Amino acid sequence: MITLKQAEAFYWIAMLxxxxxxxxxxxxAQSTLSKRVVELETFLGxxxxxxxxxxxxxxxxxxxxxxxxADLLKLEVRFRETATGPRAFSGPFRFGxxxxxALTWLPKLIVAMKEAYPKLVPEPEVDASVSLFTKLAERRLxxxxxxxxxxxxxxxxxxxxxxxxxxxCAPGAGPPEANVVPLSELARYPVLTQGEGSGLQKLVIDRxxxxxxxxxxxxxxxxxxxLAALAAAGLGITFLNEHFSQAELRSxxxxxxxxxxxxxxxxxxxxxxxxxxxxxxxxxxxxxKRCCDFSNGxxxx
Length: 301
Fold this sequence. Notes:
This protein folds into three domains: 4-85, Winged helix-like DNA-binding domain superfamily/Winged helix DNA-binding domain (Arc Repressor Mutant, subunit A, Orthogonal Bundle), CATH 1.10.10; 89-161 and 268-291, D-Maltodextrin-Binding Protein, domain 2 (3-Layer(aba) Sandwich), CATH 3.40.190; 165-260, D-Maltodextrin-Binding Protein, domain 2 (3-Layer(aba) Sandwich). It is built from eleven helices and 14 strands. The chain is an alpha/beta fold.
């Protein structure tokens, strides 16, 4: 008899292309996963994986069975949820967020997730948007909350709130304080920004480059808190969320640079795979939509 555990082992090895990755995903020993696949192949009387080389590749039979295995696993989720409700969803839920989300409304999101699904174990990963979307594409994450998601049919995007950024610097640094300055004026000063994988970097600096405004002196750091500290030390100008930086602004360590035009609002999205086996990522996206609040929190420094 074919078991759901065998179908699950087969499906995730096929999707992730690795017994190691599948074992990590399912929190099982590699030997356990391999044993289940061998049992399934023995029952079917057909090889599902080509073992003639080191890489994991499907046989023709295996390729044909992947969508059927997915259907079996989806039906199993529906069966459990119909019987037990929210308790049907248990174990780890791997999702990625940017640093700004982590420092503002991530705690609120996790509390709401646990209220809706008490047996769920949230496992947040904080990283740059580009890296997180790569992991989502590789099925190493179930959901990403980030900026500028790639346009692909493989992803479903749920719009969240937008965040407003302001150019900032230390008092006495940057353009004259009383003036509203054109963006081109900022090119005269060192710019402190996140690295290439950052959605904020891509949506602010890269767009300015595309409009003909280039910065000759750029210092990159992936920590928003460190960028705020560097700017407060007078080492350059940066762009931050006003609520996140309220402590530095109130104390006078940072000031806002008024520009024309201002940085437009930047849209955040909750993104998950369209071929997800269960509706959990979609439901967590809706919870994220209710929790999203970039005014909730400030720079811990």
